[in-house]
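Customer escalation, tier 2.

The customer says the design service returned an amino acid string that "doesn't look like it belongs to this structure." They asked us to rerun it and document both sides in this ticket. The original structure tokens are below, unchanged.
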């Protein structure tokens, strides 16, 4: 899906890592939401509250998912899941554009 219709966009950005990662929340009519964001090149560690689907729409990065020891390369068009209540790492090699969906378990 390349665009969303009938959504509400939260005006204020979520800003992380001294502005190197930003996102904006979009809320759907059913109350579900996603964030659309940008990561500048760099190394980041994130924690999750809910299960997440991360879709990379531009750029490339390496990820280290929970309970794994091997980094995976993710490129534009790829996606990956992160379990709820976990931590994962991303090494953004270029500017990364992403969509994060929050999933109930």
């Amino acid at each position: 899906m390349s665009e969303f219709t009938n959504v509400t966009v939260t005006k204020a950005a979520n800003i992380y890592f001294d502005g190197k990662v930003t996102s904006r929340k979009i809320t759907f009519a059913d109350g579900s939401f996603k964030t659309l964001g940008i990561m500048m090149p760099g190394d980041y560690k994130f924690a999750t509250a809910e299960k997440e689907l991360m879709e990379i729409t531009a750029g490339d990065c390496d990820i280290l998912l929970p309970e794994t020891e091997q980094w995976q390369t993710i490129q534009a068009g790829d996606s990956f899941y992160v379990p709820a209540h976990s931590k994962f790492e991303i090494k953004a090699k270029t500017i990364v554009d992403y969509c994060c969906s929050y999933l109930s378990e």
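Tier 2 assessment: The sequence is consistent with the input. The mean pLDDT is 95. The first strand starts at residue 7 and ends at 9. Sent an explanation to the customer and offered a walkthrough call.
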